[in-house]
Amino acid sequence: MSAIRLARTELRRITSGVLPRLAVLALVLVPLLYGSLYLYANADPYDRLDHIPAALVVQDTGTTAADGTRTDAGRGVADRLRESGAFAWHEVDAAEAEDGVRAGRYTFSLTLPADFSRALTSAAGESPRQGLILVTTNDANNYLVGTIADRVVAEVRRSVAAEVGTAAAEKFLVGFGTIYDRTREAADGATRLADGATKASSGAGELATGQRALLDGARSLADGAAKAADGAATLSTGLSTLRDKTAELPGQTRALADGAAQVAAGNEKVASAGEAVAEAAEGLAGGLDEVDARVETRLREAGVPEDVIAQTMTELRTLRAPLDKANERVQTASGDLRRLSDGADKVAKGADTLADATPALAKGIATAADGGGALAEGTAALRDGAATLRDGERSALDGTLRLADGAKQVSAGAVKLRDGLTAGLGEIPHPDAADRDRTAQTIGDPVAVRTVGENAAGSYGAGLAPFFLGLATWIGAFVLFLLVRPLSSRALAAGHGAVRTALGGWLPAALLGLAQVVVMFGVVRLLVDFQRPAGALLFLMLTTLAFTAIVHALNALLGAVGKFVALVVLILQLISAGGTFPWQTLPEVLYPLHAVLPMGYVVDGLRHLIYGGSLSGLGLDVLVLGCYLIGGLVVSTVAARRQRVWTAARLRPELVL
């Protein structure tokens, strides 16, 4: 009889009748009930946290800052917790919260103490302290809820820290902005100071140059004043002498005027006499001319020859030449006397005018002499003042030079101050309102977490699906052999080959296991999104073939004890497969179990097939399951060969399950 016929015979045996058929159907549905219902119940427990009651105690009284800003951090936290939908928050007093957590009405409580706001804002004072959030849990209520509450509180703590830090950073940055504005004003003032100091330095140089010119002028003035004083003294002495010398001048000039008048009168007489003589001489000369004419006429009438007449006339003219010259001299002398008389008259008049003016002149000379004395005294004072001015200008020049040096130093210092403030201005943060908000948020909450899931499970249930599907497949294989016999007694009694007997005992369970997997997969797909559904189904089929082979081998080799061993192997796989926490978190003594038992490879393969991602490790998973499949069939074959010999223990077993 072939292994197929043995399998068909066993299937007919376990399905002969209504109740056996129902039992087979129940066996097929066992993995479904375990896998799908457990996944359904745990699909997304975090989405239903709002059904868990939690107590919220708000004792915070708030605080008011010096600028009038009101802070009610406790109330803000309470409002955000209620709006978050995490847990069913009940705001109660402290006594009710404590009693409720102890009695189980609330799974835990969260208390915000009275000084919560004051503590959060204490960073701006001299005694900063942390704000306290009090969490009261009771593991008798639920351990995992307490753990989840710790995560919620940690998120609240982070949110509050970010908010408070952002507010503090905002004030800090506003302070920086104020410092920047004040420093910019100081830099502008320093710039103006530097410009003014530069101008002052330049002006001090120009002032020094002008002061030198003033000193030179003062020196010249002093020298000129000294000379003027000497000249004025000499002038005063000369004027005094002149005044003394001219004291008699009015009388002398009057006498001179009188004498000049007398001389003028005498000269007038002489001139008159001379004019009379000149007139007589001129008449004489005219008479001689008439005589000459008459002589010449009479000689010509007498018939004297012309040459004789001419000679005679020449002789006459020669004879009268002295008379003519005498006449000319008389005429000249008469003119000179007239001019002398006129001049004498003018002199007499001038002398008279001089005599009239001399008293005023003498008085003016006296006045000038007196003024010369005053001038001498004034120029002496001018000399002394000019000397004082010269000395003062010298001192002023020294001060101006020191002022110029000081102005240069002030200018250099102002330039350094300006450059330092300008350079420092660039080092002071001065963000605008938008940048200040972003910077404050960054300072208050410097770390932002962005989780990138390359292959996301999507929910808590989907995350556990590989583990529960593998577990359900093992349990399905286990319960199959509560109904299916590992080895056919008829085949063993008939002496059929061990391979055919082993395959004949395994095939019914394998077929039912495949049915279990197909049904379970069809339903679980409604709950979990498979990235590679065909691959996942084929891998689950390989898994059930391997698991049924393992359980079949244990039952065939060990009998009733094999069922117990299968349960032990199930427990060992539950703790070593890494279905919940990573297997690396296991105690190191369990590492060999993870490496040897098949459940870990099932979980690994299903994770990559359900969530997607690389399939580089899937070959090892398939290889291990294939080895278990073949190894289980080999062990079943060995058991079938051994059980062809009937022993007393087989006829009357000590344990029947």
UniProtKB/TrEMBL annotation:
Q: Provide the topology term for how it sits in the membrane.
A: Multi-pass membrane protein
Regions crossing the membrane: 21-41, 460-484, 505-528, 534-557, 564-583, 622-640
> SUPFAM superfamilies under this entry?
Methyl-accepting chemotaxis protein (MCP) signaling domain
Which of UniProt's keywords are assigned here?
Membrane, Transmembrane, Transmembrane helix
Say yes or no: keyword Transmembrane present. Answer: yes
Matching InterPro entries, A to Z? ABC2_TM, Phage_infect_YhgE_C, Phage_infect_YhgE_N, T7SS_ABC-Transporter, xxxLxxG_rpt
Name assigned to this protein: YhgE/Pip family protein
- Organism equals Actinokineospora guangxiensis
